Amino acid sequence: MNFFLEIKESFAIALRAITANKLRSVLAALGIIIGITAVTIMQTAIEGINRAFNKSIEAVGADVLYVQKFEWFGKEDWNVYKNRKDITLANFNFIQRNIQSSSAMCPSVGSQRSLKYGDLDLENVFVIGSTDEYQATIGVNMSEGRFMTRRESDGGYPVVMIGADIKKAFFENVNPIGKIIKIGNYSFRVIGVVEKQGSLLGMSFDNRVIIPIDLFFKLFGTKRSLSINIKAADMHNLDETKEEVASLMRKTRKIPYGGRDDFGINQQEAFKSTYESLTGLIKVIGTMITMLALIVGSIGIANIMFVTVKERTKEIGIRKAIGAKRRTILMQFLIESVTICLLGGVIGLLISLPISLIINAFVLPTAIPLWIVALAIFISAFFGVLSGFFPAFQASKMDPVDALRYE
Amino acid sequence: METVIDLKDITKTYVMGMEDLTVLKGVSLTINRNEYVAIMGPSGSGKSTLMNIIGCLDTPTSGEYILSGQNVSDMDDQELAEVRNKEIGFVFQTFNLLARIDALHNVELPLVYSGMNKSDRIEKAENALINVGLEDRMTHKPNELSGGQRQRVAIARALVNNPAIILADEPTGNLDTKTGEEIMILFETLHAKGNTIILVTHEEDIAKHAHRIIKIRDGEIESDMPNANKIKKTEVTA
Ligand SMILES: Nc1ncnc2c1ncn2[C@@H]1O[C@H](COP(=O)(O)OP(=O)(O)O)[C@@H](O)[C@H]1O
Ligand SMILES: [Mg+2]
Question: Could you give phi then psi for residue B220, rounded to 5 degrees?
Answer without folding.
Answer: -135, 150
